[in-house]
Amino acid sequence: MLMPRQQPGSSLRAARELYLEVTKDPSARPLVVASWHRSMEYQVKSGSLEAPYLDNPNLDSPLARAALPIQDRLHEQLADDPVSTMITDRNGVVLSRKVSHEGLTTNLNRVHLAPGHVFAERYVGTNGIGTALASGRPVMIAGMEHYVEALRDFHCAAVPILHPTRRTLLGAFNLTTIRQGSGGMLMAFARSVAAQIEAEIAAITSRRERALFQDYMEACSSTRPGPVLALNRDVVMMNEPLSAAVTGPDHYALLDHAREIADHPRLEGTRSIALPSGRVAELRVSRCRREDSDAGAVFRVRLIGRLQPTSAGSASPARSSLGLVGSSPHWLRAVADSEAAFVAGTWLHLLGEAGVGKRTLVAALHRAHGAGRRLEMTQAPPSDSPAVTERWLHDIGELLVVPSTVLVLSDVHLLGDQLRQRLADLLVRLDGSASGQLVMICQPSMVGADDHLDQLCGASVEVPPLRHRYGDIEHLARLFLRKYRPSGENTFSPDALALLQRCPWPENVRQLETVIRGLARRPSGRMIHVEDLPPECRVSSHKVLTTIEALERDAILRGLLDRNSNVQRTAQDLGISRATMYRKMRRYGIVPSSLT
Question: Which UniProt keywords apply (predicted)?
């Protein structure tokens, strides 16, 4: 059971009294006392040091790329001086440490002040790194001002490092020594180095943005520029033709898709996306690469179709002509293109992430247009033994020469290279004699771009993931609730619906149905509220988890919810170390502050 929190005033007085008792310093600085107060709130143990460890800290960030060369030069200047320099990210993870004095190295290792360890106040209390990050100010934490006893031999000067234009926190530069001397000189040195790092980040950012701007301007000044968009994680640029043509929901949908494409450096070429207005945006993607890094992407945009009138929202599910729920333009286009190919008897290649409804779509097509035709489903053979694969290929050949057969070949992305080639050879041989219809189902980006198997189909359709089906989540959630609670007496609160719509749904419609089925089986009132939703609706990760991983994620989430987001107490309840807890939270996309 959680301890009741003290009133802010009394807990701050308690922190000051504890600080005076430990340090015997009557001139306590308010910044340090406030940090001790936070340390007490975090329930940090002053008698033991527990700095979580994170495997493989990110050294490919703009901060690391700018700071590490400066730190190397500084290390040469401080040779044999008992001073350590450190770079940390905004979460207090030590990215790099330089020290040439053997005695200081031993002392730092003793308290885990080394790369990979986390020195945020939440874990180790008042210290130079954590307090600078928490307060957003340069700080000097000397000796007894440290909250944890093991750190009280050290004198630390830390300065936050901010993004040069957005002024958001990127990390900190820290100087640590065990030599008592002029704190003013130590702080002046730390400020100077932090300023150099910020200047270098500005220069790198400027070079990347100049490169992106140059490519953007070239696209805009071409013979027939049309609408142009350029973006990376920091910058969005669009010309007047695009700004005038794409507004409102279309604007946000276009940026959402473009960012997702830009986050995958290998995605180039042309991609088409459906916009909420009913139009299609054809994006011709070109990467901007400078200085061995990806500076962003430039999109030449072609808009196809006309704006469609928007209808008032309805609580009833919107359905396509096949009876499938959903009114998202991207979804409706996928359904319409699939239907046209199916009716024409064209071999169809259906792509889409797991759980988006590819098999459901095929079944609906067969119900509507498959009268007199038999639907056969097969998947990759369970074994790669010659006898099994020969029989599998023989069965496919036999089925495709029957005119009344619709053969659905699922999980094509799981076929090995040799079997893919043999299947392609078989389909090429059957091209003139096959009278049956083939539908191949696979997941995108699972095979090489030069693969020819999918090109044997006359039509290729990509079924959109649930996160791109704008407005359909509410309709699907209500449909599944009626399916598993036929009485129809239940509904969702606005907050619960909003949370469902923000969830990334890495397993798509299948995952949403599983969640609603679980809710329907639980006894509850007529209204489903946020607190009724399972923990998986509260994470930001797009990673598809195994059954064991999902159970582990849910146990962590439930523990954090029960413990009011207290990481330390949740770790104790689960019987794992705080370092392990921290790693798993990062892996599963769990942010404690978002759970309250």
Answer: ATP-binding, DNA-binding, Nucleotide-binding, Transcription, Transcription regulation
Start-end of H helices in 178-273: 183-220, 240-245, 248-262
Candidate ranges 239-243, 278-282, 323-327, 449-453; pick with highest mean pLDDT: 239-243
Q: Which of 517, 536, 519, 527 has its CA nearest to residue 493? A: 527
The whole-angstrom separation of Cα 250 and Cα 245 is 9
Number of Cβ within a 10 Å radius of residue 76? 9
Q: Which two tokens stand for residue 494?
A: 């606005």
CA distance 385 to 7: 70
Q: What's the burial of 222, exposed, middle or buried (CB within 10 Å: 0-12/13-18/19+)?
A: exposed
Dihedral of the alpha carbons of 297, 302, 305, 308, in degrees to the nearest 10: 40
Please report, for residues 18, 36, 554, the alpha-carbon distance to residue 563 in angstroms, rounded to integers and kept in the order given: 25, 22, 14
Q: Report CA dihedral (246, 250, 253, 255) to the nearest 10 degrees.
A: 10
Strands 139-142 and 155-162: antiparallel
Buried b (16+ CB within 10 A) or exposed e, 143-167: eebbbbebbbebbbbbbbbbbbeee
Give the C-alpha separation, 360 to 480, whole Å: 15
Partnered with residue 281 across adjacent β-strands are 273, 303
Q: So what's the pLDDT on residue 385?
A: 85
- One-character DSSP codes across 351-419: E--TTSSHHHHHHHHHHHH-TT-EEEEEES-S---HHHHHHHHHHHHHHHTSTTEEEEEE-GGGS-HHH
Q: Which residue has the tokens 């007085």?
A: 13
Direct distance between the N- and C-terminal alpha carbons of the chain, in angstroms, rounded to an integer: 17
The answer, yes or no, to whether residue 253 has pLDDT greater than 90, is no
> What separation in angstroms does the CA of 444 have from each of 421, 461, 462, 500?
18, 11, 8, 25
**Residue 290: predicted pLDDT:** 63
Q: Which DSSP string corresponds to 499-560?
A: HHHHS--TTHHHHHHHHHHHHHHS---SEE-GGGS-GGGG----PPPPHHHHHHHHHHHHHH
Question: From CA 150, how far away is CA 112, in angstroms rounded?
Answer: 10
The torsion of the CA quartet 185, 186, 190, 192, rounded to 10 degrees, works out to 20
In this structure, the strands spanning 280-290 and 269-274 are: antiparallel
Q: Is 226 left (phi over 0), alpha (psi -120 to 50) or beta?
A: left
Domains and CATH numbers, the chain: 27-204 (3.30.450.40), 222-304 (no CATH), 329-464 (3.40.50.300), 467-539 (1.10.8.60), 547-588 (1.10.10)
Tell me the pLDDT tens digit for each residue of 374-427: 999 998 887 778 888 899 999 998 888 888 899 999 888 888 888 888 888 888
